[in-house]
Amino acid sequence: MNGSSVVLPATAVQETVDEREKRVFGRVTWRIVPFVFLGYVVAYIDRMNIGSAAGAMQADLGMSHAAFGKGAGLFFLGYCLFEIPSNLILERVGARIWMARIMVTWGLVAMGMVFVTGTASFYALRIVLGIAEAGFFPGMVLYLTYWIPARQRAKTGALFMTAIPIAMMVTPWVSEPLLKLDGGSLFGHALHGWQWLFLMQGLPAVVMGIAALFWLTDRPEHARWLSAADRQWLSEEMSRERAALDRQRHGHSFKALLDPKVLALCAFYFLNNMATYGVFFFLPTILKEGCGCTGMSYAVIASLPFGVALVGMVAIGRHSDHTGERKKHVAACALTAAAGLLLATQVTQSLPLLLFAYALSQLGQRALLGVFWAIPPMFLGAAGAAAGIAVINAVGNLGGYFGPDMMGYLREATNGYTLGLTVLSACLIVEALLVLSLRLPERDRPA
After folding, report:
1. Would you give the DSSP letter of residue 380?
2. Where are the beta strands (DSSP E) in 94-235?
3. DSSP assignment, residue 349?
4. Distance between CA atoms of 131 and 145, rounded to whole angstroms?
5. Strand partners, 250
6. Could you give the residue ranges of the DSSP H alpha helices within 324-417?
7. Rounded Cα distance, 30 and 114, in Å
8. At 259, phi and psi to the nearest 5?
9. 15-436 sits in which CATH class?
């Protein structure tokens, strides 16, 4: 009234700041996460669809279980070789151009699987597909650190990584009808059903790669879909967080690679991917043998474990963010997955119990991912994160080679899956012990 400025109570100012944060980060999430999520769904379908094609492909090409398992895993050899260079290139040229390049390339190679004529060409194309896709996942994990603050990353990571169970739910529904196109003609050439599967499921990656050029934005300061004030606020907010991390944590990429915690996380992720892909590539065959069904009835059954996992991923990611605790959440999830796989070895004659066992294993393995990928930024600065996240993903994904290879070999040697699943459950128990051994802050909050 007397012309002096009005001073708002501290609570009102804080409420205004909180409201702005909620609004801006909400808009960022809705702009970025759905696209990243959809891209990862497509990536996972192209990576995993050979599990759906396995029976018909092996019959047509005369391929053994051991050869199929080795070829499935060879994807990860090419993938791992190019992980770290890919993430460092993304840091330099930006996510928009680099993600577009990755998606278009892997889509074309995935479609090229129609040219497989035997074991040698199968091996070669799986390696090339891995090279083409290399950098997509760690690049997106890194990309999210440009936009999402540390306190929200487990929840956001869980939303992004729900792509895995959703891809595994969707794959049977889109694969089974394509497999029935056996003998259908394309430009005068008759194709097997598994060739139609590869051709049609590789195309969306090419389309999304082109769309990435128009939809993705490299950094907050370039986000024209935000107002100028919001763009400046977001850029300053994320810059402050990166500066605080660099002062306290590894800011140099080479030093980050020598950190014992990075090496422990590499070992953890290696064991986790042994279990993940050892199960994934053989799960369609295991479930079809267990339930004796094919076609759309199989699609319904195969979707159920991943529906349970989907709910668990979001709930556990939210709880981890709420408490700020990471290690115990990850360890509990790994032990839950191990229990599920051990149960699966004992209930092969009961379809309801077999589905329950796989639902338990997928609940644990899928839910741990969003929380796990929130751990590296707890001790890696901005520069170290690019190399650190990439090396964890690269070394860890070598487990994706050994898991299926081991499962295929043991399937041939024992004429069953019991021993292979027992070994994979042991991997999960060891990784739980590994993550519990890490010395991390009790709560994931920037200082």
Report:
1. B
2. 185-186, 189-190
3. T
4. 24
5. 380
6. 327-344, 351-372, 382-397, 399-414
7. 36
8. -65, 125
9. mainly alpha
